[in-house]
Amino acid sequence: MPDTTDTDVLVVGAGVLGTSLAHHLLLRGTGRVTVLEAQTPAAATSGAGAGFVGLWAAGYADFLTDTDLRLQQYGIDFYRRLAERNPDIECRTHGNLYLATTEPGWSKWVRPVLGHPLAPSGTRELTPREVGAITGGVVSPSSVVGGALHPGGIQVSAGRATRALAASVRQLGGEIRENTPVRGLILSDGAAIGVLTDDGPIRARRIVLACGAWTNRILRPLGHQLPLLRVVATRVVSPPSGVPDTMPTVMVPDLYGLWLRAHRSGLTWGNGDGYSPAYELDDAVGTEIRPRYPQLVERLRERLLPGLRELVPAHDLRIDRWLQGIPCMTPDRRFLAGAVPDVPGLYVLGGDNEAGVTHGPGLGRLMAELVDGEDDATQWLDASPYRLDRFAPDRFPTERDVAAAMPARR
Fold this sequence. Notes:
- Helix 1 links the parallel strand 1 (about 5-10) and strand 2 (about 35).
- The protein contains 10 helices and 20 strands.
- It is globular.
- Helices cover about 25% and strands about 25% of the residues.
- The chain folds into 2 domains: about 5-45 and about 160-225 and about 330-395, 3-Layer(bba) Sandwich (FAD/NAD(P)-binding domain); about 95-150 and about 230-330, D-Amino Acid Oxidase, subunit A, domain 2 (D-Amino Acid Oxidase, Chain A, domain 2).
- The protein has helices at about 15-25, 65-85, 105-115, 130-135, 160-170, 215-220, 295-305, 305-310, 355-370, 400-405, and strands spanning about 5-10, 35, 50-55, 95-100, 125, 145-150, 155, 175, 180-190, 190-195, 200-210, 230-235, 250, 260-265, 265-270, 275, 320-325, 330, 335-340, 345-350.
- By secondary structure, the chain is α+β, with helices and mostly antiparallel strands.
């Protein structure tokens, strides 16, 4: 029979997950690979990411496992290689620094990082004075009780790294169609065989939805709904003030999950005050590629900024600009990577749990093996923890139910 498909694998979404998947499919020689993007690569959540890449399973997030740790290390190694070809992804290799501002914060958050069985080689405790020195004087020693350093952690520009991956896809012979939103799926005898776009149908042997907060919108007509909690997340950028780019990324869990890093001589920062579940906002969440909720920025200004000024007293923390994205959480804070039950030819790669940049390269490799294989097995890593069918179909009927089930970070 003649081949009536337009491509072998169709990936919906050119964020860090979709471009990484396409990149790894092409490295495997899968065949024709096409990525459809509603706007441009990194136009949505990936472009708003803070760009931290670390070994979060080694003491910071105890719901992650040694399997996730392998994904994390793969991501660190991948971006280092990518930076050799693409220096503009702004890869900084100065580690991840976990700080405590109180003794309870030290006991609950930082000491477990130091004593974790998966702690990487070179993990070490820092005194307040050493914290001040390693941050180039950005963090005031008087504001912390100490810290723990993972020396192998890195940071990248999430948007630039995603666009570098998109360029790699094209260089490897893949196609990225920009400004091509997917309007629906085409089914034949219950199997997914293509998608509908404004330019007409596109038929494929396999289809992977890597479109984050927009995944359930495409699945809903099929009677499927994945347990995804959409969260609007805010990242603030402050003006240049002489911040050294040698500063490690900084995590301060006892300041409601504060994260802080150098950004072109200034700082970029945020914490839980700049976040909100979609159900607490309005029905417009997800109708635009990039959300705009200034009330979350004002909440950061009111609640976080006073304490942040004590931590970072000598640098400009004015809000020069801000970005928002829509990461998606799952009930167990694990990723979604696998086949959609009862819909042959259809897969999902998602549930980034606000860690898509770290895990994107590894998840792309893992998913490429699944999509390219004949069954659900992979040779590199056990994919079973990420199967979609680990959740009963009706167990989480609403996003509030997903939020109620999520484990806390420690």
